[in-house]
Amino acid sequence: MLRDERYKYILYDWDNEMDIIRDMQKCQRNWDLTRPIIPELRDYLLWVAQNAPSKQHEAYYDVHWSTDRNVIEDLYKHAWGSTHTRTPPACWRNSQMNANMYMIFVMKQPNTMFNCENDGTSQKQDGPSRWENAIVQIGMGMALVMQAANRCGLQTGPNKIIDLGPDYKGYWGKRLGIEEDLKQNKKKLIYGLGIGFANENRPRWESDDTELALGASNGHNITELDENHPDWKPENEKGEPFRKVKIVDIKECAGQEIADPYGNVHKIPKKHEIKINTVRERDIKAIKIK
Questions:
Q1: Fewest CB within 10 A of the end CB: N or C in the chain?
Q2: 243-244 and 61-66 strand pairing
Q3: What distance in Å separates the CA atoms of residue 32 and residue 197, rounded to the nearest whole number?
Q4: Measuring CA to CA, how many Å separate 25 from each of 109, 213, 280?
């Protein structure tokens, strides 16, 4: 090994980089919203998101973002999906998104085509491998943004975006101006990333949101309507059945027992706390190829 290379490895700040990775594993659920992210840092994080590596250097996503509290809180109303309990089923909103800054990674198909089939013809623009490329590029882009943010002293919290709560009716697509692209399968909502300042001296798994949806363990295809409502439909346009929920405010009914639309009885918690998994060991092996 050359002398300069030895010095590079000796002086490189591995311990700090490993701490950053460990911080990235932790999903922040509450935020100090009194502290703004300065424009220079915001623009740097957006640059990282726009310049992540991708297969054949094609553009497989757009990033929609905001630091405006009115915008973020408006989107947050439709952000259900954080499981509270499975039996009986209940869920919270994804409070990690209600941050100082929020990025939404929207999958798309590039207007370029550098992938081909075995016979040399171009792949289908919306073929499965193209969407796989999009998922991979978003994963790399989000990870690099998270690393950059944590390196700059911020915390992060990603959340998956599929179907975002009771009687959602495609609200995010309308708000982002991509409703028709989503309907035509030209774009897909996939993941969002909350970025910001953690509240000091407060556990990251607590949330200030006090609303709890009883009757469903995630936010997919849920409704507050029932069969007596004029807008009631048993299933969505894909033929998937709706799951009915009842939304309660834990400030008003903490400690009470309340039935969901299916008759399951829930003991309403006094605090909004999210179960954490980072204390568990993961079975990810590093296997040398022989």
A1: C
A2: unpaired
A3: 5
A4: 29, 26, 12
| Half-sphere exposure for 177 (CA within 13 Å, toward CB) | 4
Helix (H, G, I), strand (E, B) or coil at 275: coil
Written as six digits, the tokens of 198 are: 């953690």
Per-residue pLDDT tens digits for 197-219? 999 999 999 999 999 999 999 98
Strands 222-223 and 243-244: parallel
Q: Which position has the token pair 């999009």?
A: 134
**Cβ atoms of 194 and 157 closer than 8 Å:** yes
H helices within the chain, ranges in order?
A: 3-11, 14-24, 39-50, 69-76, 128-151, 171-176, 179-183, 250-253
- What pLDDT shows up at residue 68? 97
Q: What pLDDT sits at residue 170?
A: 87
237 or 180: which leads in pLDDT: 180
- Quote the distance between the C-alpha of residue 19 and its chain's center: 22
